[in-house]
Amino acid sequence: MELRHLRYFVTLAEELHFGRAAERLHIAQPPLSQQIRQLERELGFELFHRTKRNVQLTEAGQVFLGEVQQIMRQLQQAIQVGRQTSRGDIGQLVVGFVSSAAYNILPTILRTFRSYVPGVSIELHELTTDQQLEWLREGRMDVGLLRPPVEENRFSCETIFQEPLMVALPEAHLLASQSDVCLTSLANEPFILFPRILAPGLYDLIISLCQQAGFSPKVAQEAIQMQTIVSLVAAEMGVAIVPASLQNLQRIGVVYKTVQESTPKVAVAMIWRKNETSPTVLRLVEIVKQAAQHW
Questions:
Q1: Is 263 in contact with 206 (CB distance < 8 Å)?
Q2: Which of 40, 121, 222, 266 is most buried, judged by most C-beta within 10 A?
Q3: Rounded to 5 degrees, what are φ and ψ at 219?
Q4: Which stretches of the chain are DSSP H helices?
Q5: Tens-place pLDDT, residues 77-88
């Protein structure tokens, strides 16, 4: 039994006329009759009562028709799902992001991707840069938003967002009333930083800026997440140099100041496996790349 036999049967059952059914199927009437006879022999029961004047479904034929129509609907659904999957329109993605990305590009990425591909669900995980690299190596994650640089050539990495650095100060700090802050004025301040292993690129940039201003920062406290760093600043534990988008984290007790000195911009990069073949992953990568041209 082949799929065409079932298609011929359904068409004849709908038309109940060999001539009209053959015309719909774009075949001659004798081959259609032959194919239906073949199907009946294989099934072991008659599908149609035939007379010179008309064709009617047998009781068994009516029951068989209902089941075959269900099979045809499932087949069409299978074809549709296959096409959507091949285009990356359905599925699930696991995406990692550094905490600061939640205050700049992550909401935009999620909105844009959902507008293009509503059938794909995204599972989000807030992870440090080093954790994201580990998850990608282990196959636990599909795409990451992290702080470059990334040295491993097994991954593709593309910068998608850049922003300046700012100084986060306790609201009651002596410098809080100034419109901007000179880095040299922070030489004797306690600093709140994150451990270097978590994002060495950003960490080294902050240390380098301080050294260019003539001092090495006195690290009073380390914290893993940017939100924690800002909270410790609010608690007057020290000052911090943070990406500008952290201003979007409205935290009582903290003020953000621009830096007088010229500072290089810090980046967020998108990372994925070089040998990636999933259409869904590649669809996300392409949509983010296109969106990033307008940021």
A1: no
A2: 266
A3: -80, 110
A4: 3-15, 18-25, 29-43, 59-87, 106-116, 129-138, 200-212, 226-234, 279-292
A5: 888 777 767 776
**How far is Cα 109 from Cα 148, in angstroms, rounded to an integer?**
18
| pLDDT single digits (tens) 253-294 | 999 999 999 888 999 999 999 999 888 999 999 999 999 988
Contact 100, 290 (CB under 8 A): no
Picking from 268, 291, 289, the residue whose alpha carbon sits closest to that of residue 112 is 291
State phi, psi for 34 to the nearest 5 degrees.
-65, -45
Q: What integer pLDDT is reported at residue 84 of this predicted model?
A: 67
146 within 8 A of 268, measured Cβ to Cβ? yes
The residues that bridge with 267 in the sheet, in sequence order, are 162
32-43 exposure pattern, b = at least 16 Cβ within 10 A, e = fewer: bbebbeebbeee
Tell me if 48 sits within 8 A of 61, measured CB to CB: yes
* pTM beyond 0.85: no
φ and ψ at 263, to 5 degrees?
-120, 140
Please name which of 232, 266, 289 lies closest in space to residue 100, comparing C-alpha atoms: 266
* pLDDT of 89: 72
d(CA 29, CA 32): 5
